[in-house]
Design brief:
- Helix 3 packs parallel to helix 4 and helix 5 packs across helix 6.
- With about 200 residues, this protein is α/β, with parallel strands linked by helices.
- A hairpin with a 5-residue loop joins strand 1 and strand 2.
- Helices cover about 35% and strands about 20% of the residues.
- The protein has a six-stranded mixed beta sheet, with helices on both faces.
- The protein is built from six helices and six strands.
Length: about 200
């Protein structure tokens, strides 16, 4: 019709590209459909006044944004991380899916342990933190808190207790009401241990 030519509909159908099958569900649809069975794990680093880096591991449930486990160490290893996933989901509390990034700290022993817990791993795309929104939002809040303390001259000393205090404070405040029990749900047992 563009050039004033009349073309039959059958001819258009013959040469029009055929659409492939429908695409798989989008990431947003996946998160919405499986919110009850999704947990996320992520690491972040906190600098101290003595220029030490403390690595904090967070385990967050997606459904109600519950921090189910966190731990602090100076040197995370694959073995340490593997033990943390066992402590995060003891007994029959394992989620259906675990959303995590592509960090090298999640080695072969971590993947094997997650598989024995019958958890399906969903590894996010490279440089796509938006695919792990709950953990990244909490980490951003905690980082801002630590930076705010540094800007006010209250540098984090070289103790892990101060990082623990910041994580606990954010666990009590909305939307990460992890340290409160909800009506109609069992209270969450939170694991807090500090490795030196």
């Amino acid at each position: 019709m563009k050039l004033g030519l009349q073309v039959a509909i059958s001819t258009v159908r013959k040469y029009r590209p055929v659409r492939g099958r429908q695409p798989n569900q989008t990431w947003r649809a996946f998160l919405k459909n499986h919110a009850g069975g999704i947990a996320a794990m992520d690491f972040f680093a906190v600098p101290t006044a003595t220029f030490r880096l403390l690595c904090v591991l967070l385990g967050v449930r997606r459904e109600r944004r519950i921090v189910v486990h966190w731990n602090i160490t100076e040197l995370p290893t694959t073995e340490w991380n593997t033990q943390q996933v066992v402590e995060t989901f003891p007994f029959d509390s394992a989620p259906d899916y675990l959303v995590r990034d592509r960090d090298s700290i999640y080695g072969g022993s971590f993947v094997k342990r997650v598989n024995t817990l019958r958890i399906l791993e969903k590894v996010i795309a490279p440089r796509a933190p938006w695919q792990n929104p709950i953990a990244e939002r909490l980490i951003g809040s905690i980082r801002r808190e630590c930076l705010d303390r540094q800007e006010r001259g209250q540098f984090l000393q070289s103790t892990m207790e101060e990082v623990r205090e910041v994580v606990c404070r954010h666990g009590r405040s909305a939307p990460f009401s992890a340290f409160r029990s909800f009506a109609g749900t069992r209270s969450t047992v939170l694991h807090r241990r500090i490795n030196a």
